[in-house]
Amino acid sequence: MPIYEYHCKTCDKDFECLVFGGDPVACPECSGTEVCRLMSACGFVSKGEGGQTTRKAAADSSCSGCSATSCSGCGH
Ligand SMILES: [Zn+2]
């Protein structure tokens, strides 16, 4: 089960979230949905993930969590 790290653009908080499929992610702090997924390709590595899994996920969907044109977490 993938646990990703996210960065909330609204309150500038980083948090981890268990994600099922394409479920939308909301910030636990402010319930905002302006969040950016942090992955190894963006300079962050999720805790507890094997290197192989992390690398594969990054290659498959590099920063697909970005919902805006700019992402402060990865520069995407
Ligand atoms: Zn927030």
Coarse shape: globular
Count of DSSP strands:
3
Backbone structural class: alpha+beta
Counted by DSSP, the helix tally is: 1
- Ends: how far apart? 25 Å
The whole-angstrom Rg is 11 Å
Q: Spell out which ligands are present.
A: zinc ion
Q: What number of domains? A: 1
How much beta, percentage-wise? 15-25%
Low-confidence stretches: 40-45, 58-62
Summarize the main sheet.
3 strands, antiparallel
Helical fraction equals: 10-25%
Mean pLDDT across the residues is 71
Helices and strands, in order, run as: EEEH
**Can you list the strand order of the major beta sheet?**
2-1-3
Give an overview in words.
By secondary structure, this protein is of the alpha+beta class. The protein has one domain. Helices cover 13% and strands 20% of the residues. The protein has one helix and three strands. The protein has one helix spanning 51-60; strands at 3-8, 14-18, 35-38. Strand 1 (3-8) and strand 2 (14-18) form a beta hairpin. The chain is globular. The model is unreliable at 40-45 and 58-62 (pLDDT under 50). It binds zinc ion (ZN). Residues 8, 10-11, 13, 27, 29-30, 32 line the site of zinc ion (ZN).
List its traits.
single chain, 76 residues, alpha+beta, three-stranded antiparallel sheet, 1 helix, 13% helix, globular, binds zinc ion
Secondary structure blueprint with pairings:
Elements lengths: L2 E6 L5 E5 L16 E4 L12 H10 L16
Antiparallel strand pairs: 1-2, 1-3
The structure holds zinc ion.
